[in-house]
Amino acid sequence: MDRFRHHLTGLILALFLAGLTGNAQFKVVGPAPYPPAVAHQKISTLLETVNPENRKQTIDTLSGLLAWYRDILDDEMIAAWKKEGRANLPEVIGPLADSRVASAIVEFSWRERHQGAFEPAYAAMLGNLMTRFPESAKPFLDDLLGPIAAGQPTPNLSPAEAETLCRILLDMPDIGAWRTNALAILPHYRRAADSILAQDLRGSDRDKSYRAERWMADLKVDGPSVSNGPSIPRRRSPASLSTAAPGGIPPDDQKESVVLLPSANGDRPASPAAAGTAPARQTAQTVQVVSSLPDTPSYTGAKSGTLECSGAPVPQNAEYVFRNLPPVKIQLDYDRKTWDARLAPGDGQTQRVILKNKSAGPQKHCAVRWSVIP
Q1: How many CB atoms lie within 10 A of CB 288?
Q2: 82-138: per-residue pLDDT in tens?
């Protein structure tokens, strides 16, 4: 009887273990297919030759080697990123990176940005790495928030580097302290931030357009308009500008912006993305607005010009700002049934024309004729 019970117990245990093995489907990892030196060479070659046509196959091959060569793959991805010719690597590094790779690549890209690794084309990958591996963002945030907290200048960036920085911050998910940090950093790179937000606001992606509105409201820009409540800046890219800076004024890609102001009853202005109102018909009525700036006899630039706003509609109660007008007394001719206008000091020896949409709905077009008063 005892012998029967012993056999029965053994049989039950064997069946139980067999069931566990079947459910777990353990995969036996055999010996490494290559010596370490050969693995380094093969992985390096795969990373050097990756392109859009073989990208999927490359990722699959590298994924299959992870069981034996995780550290070697990390070494080679980091080394490849530090070389020139990294354009095809983001799509590979993204899915294969771990914390070590993310930290090394983000730090190199940011602190060695003169080597071209901190460019707009890489913003999505860098932001993704910092989101998935928050510790990798430490050098990036330390170098930006440290000077701000100490009241010192933030890093001096090229236009492309500033665009990359702003794109990372603006696209980062609203988790942890990212939004708070971004709101502290972005005002120091206003030009790039405004340009990106303008593109997002006018784009076909409704989610991006909505996020752009949120950022614009939180950033509160354009000096005098801030006192009126939350404001939203929108810049047009230089390629879309219909007028150049008047003669004698240095070119600037911040020639125009939209600042949304709260309506009189406190309601939020209509979203440009949702605006479908046709542009108001321009009338022949004009009004003279004279600058209060003193005469500048040395000014020898253009004597007149036409300023136009286009692109996404300008919402009701929003202000459209034209920059870099000459520092002299000028007259403005515009449609006063739709717009209010005023002049205000600008950056350096310039002034701004500020139009406010006082009509009942969004306006798709405005035109202002300016001329120097003799």
Answers
A1: 10
A2: 999 999 999 999 999 999 999 999 999 999 999 999 999 999 999 999 999 999 999
CA–CA distance from 266 to each of 4, 176, 228, 245 (Å)? 87, 30, 11, 36
Bridging pattern class, strands 256-260 and 318-325: antiparallel
Between the CA of residue 368 and those of 22, 109, 242, 288, 336, what are the distances in Å?
77, 44, 12, 11, 10
Burial of 283 (0-12, 13-18, 19+ CB in 10 A): exposed
Q: Which residues of 151-169 are buried (b: 16+ CB within 10 A; e: fewer)?
A: eeebeebeeebbbbbbbbb
pLDDT, averaged in runs of 10, over the chain (374 residues): 54 54 56 95 97 96 95 97 95 96 98 96 96 96 96 95 97 92 95 91 86 87 33 34 33 42 36 37 47 61 80 77 84 88 80 86 84 82
Alpha helices, DSSP H only, in the chain? 2-24, 36-48, 55-81, 90-96, 99-111, 123-132, 138-150, 159-171, 178-185, 190-202, 206-219
pTM over 0.70: no
Asked if residue 356 lies in contact with residue 319, where contact means CB atoms within 8 angstroms, the answer is: yes
Alpha-carbon distance 246 to 251, whole Å? 9
The order of strands in the sheet holding 256-260 is 256-260, 318-325, 351-357, 339-345
Picking from 359, 353, 372, 354, the residue whose alpha carbon sits closest to that of residue 283 is 359
Q: Which residues of 291-320 are buried (b: 16+ CB within 10 A; e: fewer)?
A: bebeeeeebeebbebebebbbbbbbbbbbb
Domain ranges of the chain: 231-374
Q: Does the CA dihedral 135-136-139-142 come out positive or negative?
A: negative
Inter-residue contact 372 to 326 (CB < 8 Å): yes
Which of 104-114 are b and which e, b meaning 16 or more Cβ less than 10 Å from the residue's Cβ?
bbbbbbbeebe
Question: How many Cβ atoms from other residues are within 10 Å of residue 60's Cβ?
Answer: 9
